[in-house]
C-alpha cells in the first residue's frame, strides 16, 4: 500500500533507539524526509545514518533534550514546520508512589505531558494552514490500564490524553489528525528498566521476570519496534485522515477488555 506521504517532512522525537526509532524507520521507508532527535550526539548521528542507509535516503538529526525549551527550539530549527510530528520522550522511572516527591512529578509531567503539548502548540497552526498534518503521541498502555510500578507514567500520560481528546476534535476538519499510540510491552531498553523495577520489588531475578512477562502476553512475546513503527506510519498516512483523537493500543492482545 502506498501511504501517500512521500516527500512530507517529519520530526520524530527521542528516536535514536526503541519505539521512536521504529517510527522514524517506517516513515523514512515511505519516502518521508525524517529528522530525528535524541540527547547524545554520537547516538543520534549513528541512528540517523543507519536509518538513512536502510531507507535509501538521508535522515537528518539533532542532538537535544526534547523536554527542555532549548531542546525543543533546536528540534524545530532542524525541522521547521513539520507535516508529521511524532512526540516521544523517555518514560519516567518506576517505583513506589510514596518515593516520588513534587520534583519527580514535575519532571514526569514536563517530559510526558507538557513537552508534547508544547510541540503541538508550535506546529499545529502551520499544519492547519497547509490543510495536512499528522501528530502521533507515543504514550502507553498504562493510560488504559494502569501499571502498578509506573505511577508517574499513569498520571502524566493521562493528562496528555485528556488534552489531545479535546484538541483532536478541533483540528480534524482542517486535515490535521492527532492520535495516541499506546505501546504494550516492546523489547526495548525501556522495558528492561521497568522489569528491573519489578524484579527489585519482588526479589526475583530480572531474566526470570522478563521471561514470565513475555509468556503472559497473549501474543506469547514482547513486541518489536518495527511493528510499532508500521502502525505509526499508517496513522501518518493519507489513508488515516478519518482517524482522530483515538488511543490505539499496540500490545499483542494484552489489554483484557472487549473494547
Ligand atoms: P528506549 O529507552 O528504548 O528509547 C528512548 C529513546 O528516547 C532513546 O533514543 C533516548 O535516547 C531518547 N530520549 C530519552 N529521553 C530523551 C529526551 N529527554 N530528549 C530526547 N531524546 C530522549 O524507550 P522506548 O521503549 O522506545 O520507549 C519510548 C516511550 O514509550 C517511553 O516514554 C516509554 O516509557 C514508553 N513506553 C514504552 C513501552 C515499552 O514496552 N517499550 C511501553 C509503554 C510505554
Describe the protein in words:
There is one protein chain. The mean pLDDT is 97. This protein starts with 8 loop residues before the first strand and ends in a 9-residue tail after the last strand. The longest helix has 29 residues. It is globular. It is 47% helix and 14% strand. With 259 residues, the protein is an alpha/beta fold. It has a seven-stranded parallel beta sheet with strand order 3-2-1-4-5-6-7, with helices on both faces. The protein binds nicotinamide-adenine-dinucleotide. The site of nicotinamide-adenine-dinucleotide has 27 residues, from helix 1, strand 2 and helix 6.
Radius of gyration: 18 Å
Distinct bound molecules: nicotinamide-adenine-dinucleotide
Strand count, sense and barrel status of the largest sheet are: 7 strands, parallel
Oligomer: single chain
Distance between the termini: 28 Å
Q: Helix content range of the residues, please?
A: 40-55%
Number of helices, where a helix is a run of at least 4 consecutive DSSP H or I residues:
8
SSE order, one letter for each helix or strand: EHEHEHEHEHEHHHE
How is this fold's topology laid out?
Layout: E1 9-12, H1 18-29, E2 33-38, H2 41-55, E3 60-63, H3 69-78, E4 84-87, H4 102-130, E5 133-138, H5 151-171, E6 176-183, H6 189-202, H7 206-216, H8 225-235, E7 247-250
Parallel strand pairs: 1-2, 1-4, 2-3, 4-5, 5-6, 6-7
Give keywords:
globular; 47% helix; single chain; 8 helices; 259 residues; seven-stranded parallel β-sheet; binds nicotinamide-adenine-dinucleotide; alpha/beta
